[in-house]
Write a structure and sequence with these properties.
Chain lengths: ~250, ~150
C-alpha cells in the first residue's frame, strides 16, 4: 500500500523557502484529494521531518477507502516525474498551481527538489514546466453514467457522472438536439458521441457531437441468472474455454 | 468465464456466487466491453445462426450491473499496443484480444481501483503472471458457496 509521499529540498535551505515548499505540498495534496477522491476525507499527516536533508514525509489516512490514498500518491509520483522532465502536469489548474509553488523554491540556494513515493524518486532541478495542457485523446464511443446539472443558459450541456470514475463529464448538446435532454435528469443514461479523454488516465472529460442519449433501464436483482444455461451445452461439447481460445487464436 | 456460465458448465455456481457478491457490493467485477462481442460471437457460432431475441435479451441482462463494463477506448488501444510490444521483448506473443483484456485490467488497477486478481480459466493467460503482468491471474473462486441458492429462473 503506497500511502506515504515525501518531499526533500537539497542545498542551502532558508526557513522561508522550506515553509513555502511545505505550504505548496499541503495545497498539492489537498488539490489532488479534491480531484481524485472528491467527497472523501483524507487526512495528510506529517510522520517524519528530517532537518539534515530538509525532508518531510507525509502519510495519507483515509476514513473509508485506502485505495483513494494510493491513487493520490500515484498521482503525486506522476507529478514528480513530469516536473523532472519539464513536461505538462495532467491535472486541474489547482494542482498545477500547487506544483508550481513547490518548484518555485528552486532559486539557486535550493539546488534540487525530490518527489518520492515508495522507492520512486524524482529529482527536479528547474522550476519551469510546459504550461500547455496535455492533448486530449478523442474517439467516438459511449459513456454510461448518471445525469446531473442540466444547463440551458447560452450553451446546452449537462454533467454526466460516469460509472467508472464517478467524476463529472461535461456533455455538450447542440440546440437542434434539445429534445434528447427531455426526462434524463437524475437518470442513468448511455451517451454516444465524441469522447474527449485525459490522454494519460483515459478518464472521460467531455462529450461533443452527441448522437444519442438512451436511458438505461433498471435491472431486476439477479437478472444475470437468466443467462445460466441459456445456450444448450452438454459434456463432450467444446468447452467455453476452448471456444474462446480458438476464436482468439483465429484473429 | 461468462461463456462457461451461459453454457452452465462446471463451476457455474462459483461464477454465480461471485455475481451475487458483486450485486450486494461485496466485490467488484469488471470486464471489457469486448467481452460482449466475444461471447455473442461464440454463442452465434454454437447456434450456427443469429441469436433469437430471447437469447440476445438474456445476454444483454448479463452484461450490465453488477458487472462493470470498461470501454475499449483509445487509451486502452494505445496501452494494448505498448503492452503487446513490451511482451514481445520477453519473447511472449500476445494475441490482440488477450492484450485488450489484460491491458484493461492493468488500466483499472492503476486508475479506478486496485484489483486483487484477474479471473480466467485460460491456461495461456494464467502463464503470463507474474512476468508479463503483475496482477495475479487465477481461476474464479469463492471461499464457500451458499448452502441454499435460488433455482435458476
Amino acid at each position: 500500500m503506497k500511502n506515504k509521499v515525501f518531499l526533500t529540498l537539497n542545498g542551502e535551505i532558508p526557513v522561508n523557502l522550506f515553509a513555502e515548499a511545505i505550504s505548496g505540498l499541503s495545497s498539492l495534496l489537498n488539490a489532488l484529494t479534491e480531484e481524485i477522491a472528491a467527497g472523501k476525507t483524507i487526512e495528510w499527516q506529517i510522520i517524519e521531518l528530517s532537518a539534515g536533508s530538509a525532508t518531510a514525509v507525509i502519510q495519507g489516512i483515509a476514513d473509508t477507502d485506502e485505495d483513494d490514498v494510493e491513487k493520490i500518491t500515484t498521482a503525486y509520483a506522476l507529478i514528480g516525474q513530469q516536473l523532472q522532465f519539464g513536461k505538462p502536469i495532467p491535472y486541474s489548474p489547482k494542482v498545477i498551481q500547487s506544483a508550481r509553488k513547490i518548484a518555485s523554491v528552486l532559486d539557486g540556494k535550493v539546488s534540487s527538489i525530490e518527489f518520492g513515493v515508495d522507492g520512486q524518486i524524482y529529482h527536479i532541478t528547474q522550476p519551469g514546466f510546459q504550461e500547455k495542457p496535455v492533448t486530449k485523446a478523442y474517439s467516438y464511443g459511449v459513456i454510461t453514467g448518471k445525469v446531473e446539472n442540466l444547463i440551458g443558459h447560452k450553451t446546452l450541456k449537462f454533467t454526466l457522472y460516469d460509472n467508472l470514475f464517478n467524476r463529472g463529464v461535461t456533455c455538450y448538446v447542440e440546440e437542434e438536439k434539445r429534445e434528447l435532454l427531455r426526462n434524463i435528469w437524475g437518470k442513468t443514461v448511455s451517451v454516444t458521441g465524441y469522447i474527449y479523454r485525459d490522454i494519460i488516465t483515459g478518464r472521460p472529460l467531455e462529450i461533443h457531437d452527441i448522437e444519442s442519449i438512451q436511458i438505461v433501464p433498471l435491472r431486476e436483482p439477479g437478472a444475470y441468472k437468466k443467462a445460466r444455461g441459456a445456450l444448450p451445452w452438454q459434456p463432450g461439447d467444446e468447452t467455453a474455454d476452448q471456444t474462446i481460445r480458438r476464436l482468439r487464436d483465429d484473429n | 468465464m461468462f461463456l462457461r456460465y451461459i453454457n452452465n458448465e462446471s463451476e457455474s455456481s462459483i461464477i454465480e456466487e461471485l455475481m451475487r457478491r458483486a450485486e450486494s457490493n461485496q466485490i467488484n467485477i469488471f470486464t471489457s466491453t469486448i467481452t460482449i462481442a466475444e461471447v455473442t460471437h461464440a454463442a452465434q457460432e454454437r447456434n450456427q445462426s443469429a441469436l433469437n431475441s430471447d437469447v440476445e435479451s438474456v445476454l444483454q441482462n448479463l452484461f450490465g450491473p453488477p458487472i462493470k463494463l470498461v470501454d475499449y477506448s483509445i487509451t486502452i488501444g494505445y496501452e494494448t499496443r505498448n503492452f503487446i510490444r513490451t511482451a514481445m521483448t520477453h519473447s511472449k506473443k500476445i494475441k490482440p484480444i488477450d492484450g485488450i483484456h489484460l491491458t484493461t485490467a492493468s488500466w483499472i488497477d492503476r486508475y479506478i481501483v486496485r484489483l486483487d486478481e484477474f479471473n480466467t480459466y485460460d491456461q495461456e493467460l494464467k502463464s503470463l503472471y507474474p512476468n508479463i503482468i503483475p496482477i495475479e491471474i487465477i481461476e474464479p473462486h469463492v471461499d464457500q458457496l451458499p448452502l441454499f441458492s435460488n433455482p435458476v429462473p
